[in-house]
Amino acid sequence: MKRVVTFGEIMLRLAPEGYYRFVQAKSYGATYGGGEANVAVSLAGFGIDAAFVTKLPKHEIGQGAVNNLREFAVDTSLIVRGGDRVGIYFLEKGASQRPSKVIYDRAHSAIAAAAESDFDWDKIFQGADWFHFTGITPALSDSAAEICLAACKAARAKGVTVSCDLNYRVNLWSREKAGEVMSKLMEFVDVCISNEEDAFDVFGIKASGSDVTSGIINNDGYKEVASALIKRFELKQAAITLRESIFCVINCI
Amino acid sequence: MKRVVTFGEIMLRLAPEGYYRFVQAKSYGATYGGGEANVAVSLAGFGIDAAFVTKLPKHEIGQGAVNNLREFAVDTSLIVRGGDRVGIYFLEKGASQRPSKVIYDRAHSAIAAAAESDFDWDKIFQGADWFHFTGITPALSDSAAEICLAACKAARAKGVTVSCDLNYRVNLWSREKAGEVMSKLMEFVDVCISNEEDAFDVFGIKASGSDVTSGIINNDGYKEVASALIKRFELKQAAITLRESIFCVINCI
Amino acid sequence: MKRVVTFGEIMLRLAPEGYYRFVQAKSYGATYGGGEANVAVSLAGFGIDAAFVTKLPKHEIGQGAVNNLREFAVDTSLIVRGGDRVGIYFLEKGASQRPSKVIYDRAHSAIAAAAESDFDWDKIFQGADWFHFTGITPALSDSAAEICLAACKAARAKGVTVSCDLNYRVNLWSREKAGEVMSKLMEFVDVCISNEEDAFDVFGIKASGSDVTSGIINNDGYKEVASALIKRFELKQAAITLRESIFCVINCI
Amino acid sequence: MKRVVTFGEIMLRLAPEGYYRFVQAKSYGATYGGGEANVAVSLAGFGIDAAFVTKLPKHEIGQGAVNNLREFAVDTSLIVRGGDRVGIYFLEKGASQRPSKVIYDRAHSAIAAAAESDFDWDKIFQGADWFHFTGITPALSDSAAEICLAACKAARAKGVTVSCDLNYRVNLWSREKAGEVMSKLMEFVDVCISNEEDAFDVFGIKASGSDVTSGIINNDGYKEVASALIKRFELKQAAITLRESIFCVINCI
Amino acid sequence: MKRVVTFGEIMLRLAPEGYYRFVQAKSYGATYGGGEANVAVSLAGFGIDAAFVTKLPKHEIGQGAVNNLREFAVDTSLIVRGGDRVGIYFLEKGASQRPSKVIYDRAHSAIAAAAESDFDWDKIFQGADWFHFTGITPALSDSAAEICLAACKAARAKGVTVSCDLNYRVNLWSREKAGEVMSKLMEFVDVCISNEEDAFDVFGIKASGSDVTSGIINNDGYKEVASALIKRFELKQAAITLRESIFCVINCI
Amino acid sequence: MKRVVTFGEIMLRLAPEGYYRFVQAKSYGATYGGGEANVAVSLAGFGIDAAFVTKLPKHEIGQGAVNNLREFAVDTSLIVRGGDRVGIYFLEKGASQRPSKVIYDRAHSAIAAAAESDFDWDKIFQGADWFHFTGITPALSDSAAEICLAACKAARAKGVTVSCDLNYRVNLWSREKAGEVMSKLMEFVDVCISNEEDAFDVFGIKASGSDVTSGIINNDGYKEVASALIKRFELKQAAITLRESIFCVINCI
Fold this sequence. Notes:
The structure is a homohexamer. By secondary structure, chain A is an alpha/beta fold. Chain A has helices spanning 35-45, 60-71, 121-124, 136-139, 142-157, 175-186, 196-203, 219-233; strands at residues 3-7, 11-16, 27-33, 49-53, 55-56, 80-81, 88-92, 101-105, 130-134, 161-165, 191-194, 237-240. Chain A has a six-stranded parallel β-sheet, with helices on both faces. In chain A, strands 3-2-7-8 form a four-stranded mixed β-sheet. In chain A, helix 6 (175-186) links the parallel strand 10 (161-165) and strand 11. The A-B interface holds A 14, 17, 21-23, 25-31, 59-61, 63-64, 67, 84-86, 88, 90, 92, 101, 103, 105, 107-108 and B 14, 17, 21-23, 25-31, 59-61, 63-64, 67, 84-86, 88, 90, 92, 101, 103, 105, 107-108.
């Protein structure tokens, strides 16, 4: 990888200081984050030339997101400035048996409301050899999905490797819509990252003998899912991620 | 006044802790406020039975606004719960020669998106003898303007005194639209609060010999404006407010 | 339950911020709490009409306690205002092998110094069908015990169900005094909540074969204790609570 | 001065962080202070051997007061440990036109409840050549006044210079009681510090032609008051302090 | 200006939170700053391509300085990494009649200990058309002065305009040494910024009739000083800065 | 033990607030600490007369260290004031699988740069019966090692028991230098505290059959090491400390 471009939404994250609950919070710690922006920050941290592409308002909340990315060495020169608002998510950290909670307030953000004409992908991909996005980006709005498609086509045309993390979000779109939109995008994807649930939710691909809800894990099943993804979409590579939900025992045996 | 009902939007106010600027802020102090909600809090502080009416999401950011009003003894039992988001405004406190800044992120809030059918004004005005709103509320959206009109009509029908602070906000609507909408509402208003600029911006009412931008103040002019308002809208009373912009000299002689 | 009234002391809780010890603390987080107030807050949180009755000074530390209860939807309209001080407790949170510490500074509080004539129980119980107090309240002072008795008698006379959590506090009174006072109050109690130790400390009621200090738990013994309480005081119901002291293993296996 | 001993009460000062009001405070900054303790801290800061004498509970809130004095080099080895509580005062800092507020919660403190036998003044004054107290200390309780008297007598007997700042506090005692108690103590005082109001409130000494409430200041009057104090109590010296109440103009011209 | 390079030391600034004094501070706000770095941040804020050159340790305190510059859009790619420590200055903000205090702990910093061979000025000035430094940089150490000279020579050779703010610091070097070193550097300077005191301290240039210590300001004198600087060092331009020391009256009239 | 004197360096400890990393830190919690100072604080906490000896700058960062020791009842009257800087260490607290990190910035501190003549050990040991130092102190600089030797000789001459914790620090000196310097000091040591690694690193003393890096613990080996230390240096006592590195499992089973 010489230069990686990631594309998506970066949101203002507001989390009550300490372990206060939302209804008790008098102060919120403010940072910025989002799936594709986090990938760019991580890559920059490993010394890789990484740019993040999005649309952010010209006002200072938008500027705060830009500055935060710059702080961690991400190239922000390709970010389009305009639109009304920065998406927000509120995070209440869990404690003991109380789980964490997230409240999204991301509708109508600048990137969700962006137009295809806001982005000149030929220019964006100059010098890049890798493009990464996730299934969250096309789920933001119809226009965001169109922009993704334009990006993918431009990347393919320029020989830029395209990777996509399926990342299905039930609050943003239906399984049917996700399947329809993502199938079109997958034509241009070289590397697909998924977990077992996303592959099923979005594409109906399921390993024989696995049962996500029961927690039964079938290692051979992951290979089946990866193979099915590679075959259906003619991928170069597929990666299946596995995150265990571990019961937390802080505070007591 | 036995019982006052105020109606409008309550927003989450996020202000950087200390005197940090937006682009430096790592932490925001969180309170809730809005013109009509503040009136309810003030009246409750003077021991008057005060209820605030709005629409707020069922989630915990909406609940935070409810709890905050309750803390200061405002009756929140008439608040409609539903919708997606709580309006937000970001406030950067000024310091020395640097002025304060406000960034609004209030579009698409639950109250701006509320429907006329969300509010049963006959029930809301039970036991009330005063209804207060400001020109900000009908400016939020067309539906918010309709809800205001329904409220005003119900108040008039029940013999509830109606007061309105013109409070023209250039970012929310044009002078033309404001004039058109507010003129309809004024038919039901008994007491109008305004300053000289708002009376001109919204209704074109201007004192002879005054010049707002030059800072020349003509005390007789205020009486003219008040008289004109009373005459045009058959008001019981009109109040003209005057806030001087005083040059701040903290830090030096 | 249509409406619940709880009665007791609400204290200002001062806990060093973070995990600082008392002797290091430069800042205390301030909240308000107390056994019966917490019950009212919890019930209100479940949507039940809950009022808390106490006496609090008219000054702003007293008002802070009122506002805090209101924030969580507790009816504070029956709180008597007057007296000199709000009881305080200092809490040092434990960490790792260091246990939590509590220093009480509650003597001479407004509620401990209140007079029987401060409370008009007939009025307080209007519309209520449940009254709850704990063994902490009569332990505060002789006059507090008399107020409890007056409350219990008024509740019985109006057909209000009375529940009492024994909650014996060795720092507040002797076992002898507790037994004497609580026995008189139990004549009017319908539902008694206790744990095995409190039943023994206050009334000498002990299950055969149990040994609190050794940690040996005898489940049948709880039934014996509950039966004995019901029989002796002609209760409608008795509940035995059980809280295990679990050894904390944060920080290491 | 080789070694100074001051005697009085040191209180826990709890002030809301920032400029929050009491009813908004979620956090209190905690320091320790009191008239005589502050004198000891100031003298120690100038390099003078200074000891502070009081009674403080053995618990960690009491220890916090001791540590705080030690931090600023005050000798705390003569402090008697015992009693129940540390006096508290709550301070709300004023801002703009809002004045500061103080709520005292100092009754029943360890020093107010101390007995004469708690203090061995012969031992306390070993090596000392100056003893300082203020009119606040004898106002705390009858026993505190007796301890003051015992201290004054012991100081006189050992040739230790005694200074007293009248510091009349209307919330603690009446003018009559203050006059009676302070007159006895003044027999042993060598240096008296006062302002014009205190001299009048406690001893009825008034300059001809001055009027405290009108703000008219009569410089010759101060000399009259000082002369009258010296004459009546056979003092070595009297000092009259003058603190102007200056109107604050922060925020505006 | 197409691209500006500034060169000097960036220090970790540690200032007690709020208005606490050094001896009370339990917490320090941490930012990074220095004369030449601040110039680069300001220029970047105006949209000018600005790079800052220095030497910073590879460890994370050094990285924090780099990240902070990046956040504000300064090009940090030319910073040399190595050496042991980041210079520190402690700042106690003044309040009311208490002045601010600064304690420097900058000796032995990476840049003060840097070698001439650490910097390849031909490479550094690629694409640059302006070079700025201040009199603080050569004052840091003999080697820092040599590096400055090498930078100035390289700039002159490449036709890069050189500006220098005299900025005499009495704690870092004597007037004699400053005069000797700065005179050599001035051979390569095109634009000199100074105030009246610095011109006198470093070069003995003084306006007729002015008296810095008395506060008497002679406007014609500034022109004399500027002319003298231009003449002696064959400058293109000279700027005289004037900062009035205004007596602060916050808190009282 | 009647009175213990400990000697070494006390540093300013700067740790990011909360669990922020160095590169994220905007605020550092400030305390003071060091091996020998911590011993003095602990002894004082147990009520033992404990003095700490070091050299600290006269400025207020130095004074902060003095005040902090005084707060915890350590005698600071023997501390020499002078020199340029207080040693600093930056501490990033670990969290979950991320380990803690320490960055030292202690070179050129006042104590590292102190001269033998700064300390009058005969005077320092007046009234003392125990002297404690660690292997960190002589590692600070050649002059610090000489001061240690002078202290040890004076202690022996006055019959003061000398204890030393080997505490080998690889960043401060080589094994060869440590062995050479510590061997000279051990002539005057009565009680040596060590762990198995330090005994080997400094003196090459190793238990048969133990392997520190493999984690195999051989209890008999500790006795061997202790016996070897006692024999080689004619000690009165040797103590071997053992700190297990326990794998942390906070957050998950």
